[in-house]
């Protein structure tokens, strides 16, 4: 029995019919559906399909025709019958070239079509026209002669085929990066993650039909920006990106689907061995990589090597395929700090930044100097893959595969090759070890000539270890996070190190049943998943110290007799080493385990209404249960809070159509659907910890005399819950919970487009696509109340000239009018559904399929993405104990939700993106002598050109001193005390108004192939990523303003600072830079 699936889910809120259904009954439903006889419009995830209509010589449909599907290479021989409407449908076929369709009807001749190519996620239509009796009509086709338009496709999707995967240039050999070749997809930060149509952290990754998505962060397995890949690229045959309007078979994500297929063995032995090598010789220097003020190209090297082989064990019966890939790399980083508001170009503190004693300021400068250095990094990764396919008879096929990945790297917590925020040489740059395991066992069974059943079992395991970098720890035994004057990364990671974050194990049972009936191709399916996730970490466990100025930091870093007391007038007289403005920490048990159970069902009907009109109708249902957190401390006030809601009404209808015109050379497509997100494992984990029961999380401020009295001297932290309970009052202990009735975030999508065949080898499509994200997770603080005060600021430009004034509503503390404040709690964090997304786009794609000279694609996207401050991926799953918006979302202000003031350009927004690819082969001809033929033949050029307009980030404001009457004096001007993005943005300018870099990038690979006897060959390649070295910034200086407060006059000053918008990083996956990288490779193929 699958662990946990047939146990009653842990829930304190299970009511109604579904609430009383035992999980084991859902398992019975799965197998009942497997005998109920229905099927689908779309091919099975990880597989392909063939379909067609049989016509007699007069054009009438022919029912009950004998149809045989044959693939000699794979040992497939499947026998079908056409329906009353003359339709035949062969689902669950392994994608492969070389399929044949043979149709036989008594009284007519035999019709045979050879050379059919089936791709993953594709349903190939095969027209069949019978001839007169005693004749055999054989039509030989290839991928180049099959119809270029897919008349059964209603979604917006794109295929990346084996030729592209093998021959296009790629850096790091992570195959899902080729998804960026398709329209509607942008990079989500610089960690290698993807965003589809403006949705952060909402994708599904399938491998041979098994969901391998890491639930913790809703990313690809091994995600998080460290591991190069989770599987050898040579183990992937092809993949399809499902972008908009995909079928009900796909779920658990509101972004896109990367649907990949692994290679299999056949009746012929085949394989290859490869080696990729590079060093710094032809690499360009990152513009921020400098030592002593001079450009420095750090010495590095990378070896990627491996081999794979596949073939028969028993001809036509048992096949194998295995692959191995290894990587070793040495890649030092160059650390620095670029912050024009505190440092000059040489890393020296600006005049006035430190006014303590000279010896104290010198100690601070020495401390800062330690972040200007090189840091050695080493990486080792090994990937192994094995697949077996067994066909004991023509009715049944068994497939088993196993994949593993082991990764370890030192000082890889910071991916950038030249970080300019100090993190590279700080205790935040931890060591990483990641292990990934994927296994699959499936059976495809031909129930009858019109019925096929597909059963799948999957297992995924992942473990990510993050180790303390002892060689990068700050001096003077500082083992906490430190931020001074807005400059972070001056201590260690705020996340306790070492840690394991997370260990995940997922078990999956899935079954899909397909049947042809009349004009319908039907599919029903179910998918049960059990996930166990364990975190061994305490977020904010090391504690974090925040200083307003370097002067205050100097007093605590090097205490001297006679140092002044804390500069905040609200603070009582104190001893030394307590000049910081706030201290935050969490104390409690480090291990948190959660369980997530998914019960998903779908039904799909592909209805061929007429010869030119096809309709896709689908319905998906998703139900999830979660480990419930202990009742939060706030339950004493509101007993309804605490449980995580488990919605029972997550129905997701899908509808699509395709209408073909002009003799099938023009296709009109449209679709609409609802797509639910999965709740990240990190979010469910954090909800176990937020309540203030198993962990105590608190923030102490020098603005509060009682809290200040509880503060420890700098660098000392609390070590036990009993110590916290003894020294800290309940008014400082935070609590948090999910809002009662928390809904599952979802997206409504729609598209309408047309695809036109230009020639037999060329097509062009254009579509309008739109989506609205609803009920995405947001955070607010119930203890903040309404913004009942008003603060006034005089605004000055960088030259000190006053340019105007600004007033902002502010949240006050209890002593100054916050009547809703509950003194029994610190912050009362509420997780709710206040988030919204808006996306509108135009996607266009040109496709020229392979001929003997060239294969090419052009993908263009115009889009506009807005949200309510959702941020990028990380902001949406691992939240802290505070909100992230300038105004509190839990209460309305001026008749509007506090979240609504964040509406603006999304951080995922990219208005224009153009990607062009080509595989250009030198034409074969008789060039005379043997040596001339060898010299001139076998050449291939493979370029990728990318143009993309900038993404944008917020202009931020750094609070250096604040109004002591505020609820939380910093870092938010409004006094709400929120974090990035909304909590530190300048509220008087539009959101996301600072552009990052514009991408103009040309990648290229040049290959020379040498033919050897017996179908063997050797390929020598040279490739360059960003060959023209056009640098684009991935980070800019966001500090545009600073603010200070005059307690005597109760007015403030806002001053613009120089340097806002200047580049601070040119990162990129997987090297941490987008400066040119070049490598050579050798491949042997047989």
TrEMBL record:
Pfam families cross-referenced by the UniProt entry: CarboxypepD_reg, OMP_b-brl_4
Taxonomic superkingdom: Bacteria
SUPFAM superfamilies the UniProt entry points to: Carboxypeptidase regulatory domain-like (SSF49464), Porins (SSF56935)
GO MF entry, a single one: siderophore uptake transmembrane transporter activity
A GO biological process held by the record: siderophore transmembrane transport
Record flagged with keyword Membrane: yes
Membrane topology: Multi-pass membrane protein
Domain TonB-dependent transporter Oar-like beta-barrel, first and last residues per copy: 262-329, 366-1057
Subcellular location(s) of the protein: Cell outer membrane
One CC-aspect GO term: cell outer membrane
Principal subcellular localisation of the protein: membrane
InterPro entries: Beta-barrel_TonB_sf (IPR036942), CarboxyPept-like_regulatory (IPR008969), Oar-like_b-barrel (IPR057601), TonB-dep_rcpt-like (IPR039426)
Keywords: Cell outer membrane, Membrane, Transmembrane, Transmembrane beta strand, Transport
Protein name: TonB-dependent transporter Oar-like beta-barrel domain-containing protein
Organism: Granulicella mallensis
């Amino acid at each position: 029995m699958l662990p946990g699936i047939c146990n009653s889910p842990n829930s304190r809120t299970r009511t109604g019919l579904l609430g009383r259904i035992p999980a084991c009954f859902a398992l019975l439903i799965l197998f009942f559906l497997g005998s109920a006889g229905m099927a689908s419009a779309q091919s099975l995830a990880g597989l392909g399909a063939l379909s067609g209509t049989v016509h007699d010589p007069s054009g009438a449909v022919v029912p009950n025709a004998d149809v045989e599907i044959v693939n000699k290479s794979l040992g497939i021989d499947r026998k079908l019958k056409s329906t009353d409407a003359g339709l035949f449908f062969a689902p669950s076929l392994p994608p492969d070239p070389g399929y044949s369709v043979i149709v036989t009807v008594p009284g007519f001749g035999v019709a045979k079509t050879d050379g059919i190519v089936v791709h993953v996620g594709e349903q190939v239509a095969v027209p069949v026209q019978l001839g007169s009796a005693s004749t055999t009509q054989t039509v030989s086709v290839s991928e180049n002669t099959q119809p270029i338009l897919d008349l059964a496709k209603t979604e917006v999707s794109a295929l990346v085929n084996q030729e592209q995967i093998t021959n296009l240039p790629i850096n790091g050999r992570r195959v899902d990066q080729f998804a960026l070749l398709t329209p509607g997809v942008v990079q989500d930060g610089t960690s290698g993650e993807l965003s589809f149509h403006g949705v952060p952290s909402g994708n599904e990754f399938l491998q041979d039909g098994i969901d391998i998505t890491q639930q913790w962060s809703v990313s690809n397995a091994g995600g998080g920006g460290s591991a190069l890949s989770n599987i050898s690229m040579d183990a992937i045959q092809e993949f399809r990106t499902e972008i908009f309007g995909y079928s009900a078979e796909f779920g658990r994500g509101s972004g896109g689907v990367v649907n990949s297929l692994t290679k299999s063995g056949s009746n012929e032995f085949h394989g290859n061995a490869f080696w990729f090598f590079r060093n710094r010789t032809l690499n360009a220097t990152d513009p921020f990589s400098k030592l002593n003020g001079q450009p420095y190209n750090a010495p590095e090297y990378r070896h990627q090597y491996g081999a794979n082989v596949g073939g028969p064990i028993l001809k036509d019966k048992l096949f194998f395929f295995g692959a191995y890939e290894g990587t070793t790399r040495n890649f030092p980083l160059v650390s620095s700090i670029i912050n024009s508001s505190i440092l000059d170009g040489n890393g020296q503190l600006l005049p006035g930044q430190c006014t303590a004693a000279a010896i104290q300021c010198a100690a601070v400068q020495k401390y800062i100097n330690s972040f200007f250095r090189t840091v050695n990094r080493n990486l080792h990764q090994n990937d192994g893959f094995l697949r077996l396919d067994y066909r004991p008879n023509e009715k049944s096929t068994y497939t088993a595969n196993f994949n593993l990945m082991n990764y370890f790297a030192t000082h890889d917590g910071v991916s950038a090759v030249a970080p300019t925020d100090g993190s590279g040489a700080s205790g935040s740059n931890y060591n990483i070890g990641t292990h990934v395991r994927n296994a699959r066992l499936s059976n495809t069974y031909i129930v009858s000539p019109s019925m096929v059943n597909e059963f799948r079992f999957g297992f995924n395991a992942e473990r990510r270890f993050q180790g303390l970098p002892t060689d990068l720890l700050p001096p003077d035994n500082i083992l906490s996070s430190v931020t001074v004057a807005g400059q972070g990364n001056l201590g260690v990671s705020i996340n306790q190190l070492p840690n394991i974050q997370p260990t995940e194990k997922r078990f999956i049972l899935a079954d899909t049943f397909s049947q042809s009936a009349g004009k319908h191709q039907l599919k029903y399916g179910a998918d049960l998943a059990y996930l166990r996730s364990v975190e061994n970490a305490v977020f904010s466990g090391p504690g974090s110290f925040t200083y307003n100025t370097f002067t205050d930091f100097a007093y605590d870093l090097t205490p001297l007799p006679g140092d002044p007391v804390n500069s905040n007038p609200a603070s009582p007289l104190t001893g030394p080493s307590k000049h910081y403005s706030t201290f935050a920490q969490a104390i409690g048990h480090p291990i948190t385990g959660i369980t997530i159970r998914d019960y998903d069902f779908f039904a799909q009907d592909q209805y061929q209404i007429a010869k030119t009109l096809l309709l896709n109708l689908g319905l998906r249902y998703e139900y999830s249960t979660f480990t419930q957190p202990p009742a939060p401390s706030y339950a004493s006030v509101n007993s309804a809070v605490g449980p995580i809601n488990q919605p029972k009404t997550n129905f997701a209808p899908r509808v699509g159509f395709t209408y073909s015109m002009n003799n099938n050379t023009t296709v009109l497509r449209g679709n609409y659907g609802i797509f639910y997100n999965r709740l990240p494992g990190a979010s469910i984990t954090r909800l176990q910890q937020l309540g203030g029961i198993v962990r105590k999380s608190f923030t102490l401020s020098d603005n509060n005399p009682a809290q200040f009295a509880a503060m420890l001297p700098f660098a000392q932290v609390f070590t036990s819950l009993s110590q916290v309970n003894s020294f800290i009052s309940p008014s400082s202990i935070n609590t948090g919970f999910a809002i009662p009735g928390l809904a599952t975030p979802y997206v409504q999508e729609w598209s309408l487009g047309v695809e036109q065949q230009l020639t037999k080898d060329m097509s062009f499509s254009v579509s309008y696509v739109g989506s609205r994200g609803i009920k995405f997770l947001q955070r607010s603080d119930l203890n903040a109340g309404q913004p009942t005060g008003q603060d006034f600021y005089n605004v000055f430009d960088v030259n000190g000239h006053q340019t105007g004034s600004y007033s902002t509503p502010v949240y006050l503390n209890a002593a100054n009018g916050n009547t809703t404040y509950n003194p029994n709690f610190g912050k009362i964090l509420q997780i709710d559904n206040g988030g919204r997304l808006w996306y509108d786009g135009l996607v266009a794609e040109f496709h020229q399929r392979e001929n003997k000279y060239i294969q090419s694609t052009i993908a263009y996207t115009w889009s506009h993405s807005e949200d309510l401050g959702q941020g990028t991926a990380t902001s949406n799953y691992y939240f802290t104990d505070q909100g992230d918006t300038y105004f509190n979302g839990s209460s309305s202000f001026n008749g509007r939700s506090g979240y609504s003031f964040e509406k603006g350009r999304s951080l995922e927004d990219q208005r224009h993106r153009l990607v062009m690819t080509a595989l250009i082969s030198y034409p074969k001809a008789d060039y005379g002598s043997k040596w001339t033929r060898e010299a001139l033949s076998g050449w291939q050029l493979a370029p990728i050109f990318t143009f993309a307009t900038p993404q944008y980030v917020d202009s931020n404001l750094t609070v250096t001193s604040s109004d002591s009457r505020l609820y939380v004096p910093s870092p938010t001007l409004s006094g709400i005390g929120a974090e990035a993005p909304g909590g530190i943005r300048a509220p008087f300018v539009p959101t996301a108004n600072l552009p990052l870099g514009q991408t103009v990038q040309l990648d290229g690979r040049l290959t020379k192939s040498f033919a050897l006897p017996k179908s063997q060959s050797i390929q020598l390649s040279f490739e360059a990523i960003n060959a023209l070295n056009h640098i684009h910034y991935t980070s800019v200086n966001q500090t545009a303003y600073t603010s200070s407060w005059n307690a005597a006059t109760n007015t403030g000053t806002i001053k613009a600072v120089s340097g806002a918008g200047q580049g601070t990083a040119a990162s990129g996956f997987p090297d941490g830079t987008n400066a040119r990288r070049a490598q050579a490779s050798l491949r042997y193929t047989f």
